[in-house]
Write a structure and sequence with these properties.
Helices cover 24% and strands 29% of the residues. It has 177 residues and is an alpha+beta fold. This is SnoaL-like domain-containing protein. It comes from Cercospora berteroae.
């Protein structure tokens, strides 16, 4: 996407349709021209693929409203979990988060998330990992399609299973311009 679509129109560009700004454009406007981010190698190993897979499973269970299965899946650490939605840190456990989420989906039955892109930073030796997922969220509210950045921190428990310890979401919106 050209950065010209995010700048004020000049007389020469007046006839060109403007592209709606996405969250990525707003957060990192020169992404497509930055040498720092150009052609970065993506590290694919068994651990990054596993954390990507587990993140996708969690989102799938949310989308299908299979909350009990998610709670019993072992993906969520009952001892560690904290949820931060747009800076509103919840000290509640996973059960408290599910109460809030169920209320949201009851009011917004079309609410769905789709992974657009995902990156993983993990340390096998320390048993720590983080997934950074760019999500497309529709149906919340029903008239809006927005992007959300979801940062999920993972810890490996004593049995070697990866579990979600912290979730931080930052919502963006399409079409600010």
């Amino acid at each position: 996407m050209s950065n010209a679509s995010n700048s004020p129109l000049t007389p020469v560009e007046a006839s060109k349709p403007r592209q709606p700004a996405t969250s990525l454009n707003l957060l990192l406007p020169n992404f497509d021209r930055s040498s720092k981010y150009f052609n970065l190698p993506k590290i694919d190993n068994a651990l990054t693929k596993e954390l990507e897979r587990l993140t996708a499973i969690g989102i799938k269970l949310y989308n299908e409203r299979r909350f009990m299965e998610l709670a019993q899946s072992g993906l969520i650490s009952p001892n560690w979990i904290k949820v931060n939605q747009d800076g509103n840190v919840r000290s509640s456990d996973f059960k408290g988060h599910m109460v809030d989420h169920k209320a949201i989906v009851a009011e917004n039955p079309e609410f769905q998330s789709r992974i657009v892109d995902i990156a993983v930073d993990a340390d096998e030796c320390k048993g720590l990992g983080t997934t950074f997922a760019l999500l497309e969220v529709t149906g919340y509210p029903s008239t809006l399609c927005r992007q959300t950045i979801s940062v999920v921190k993972w810890k490996r428990n004593g049995e070697g299973q990866w579990q979600i310890a912290n979730v931080a979401n930052m919502r963006g919106a399409q079409g600010f311009a």
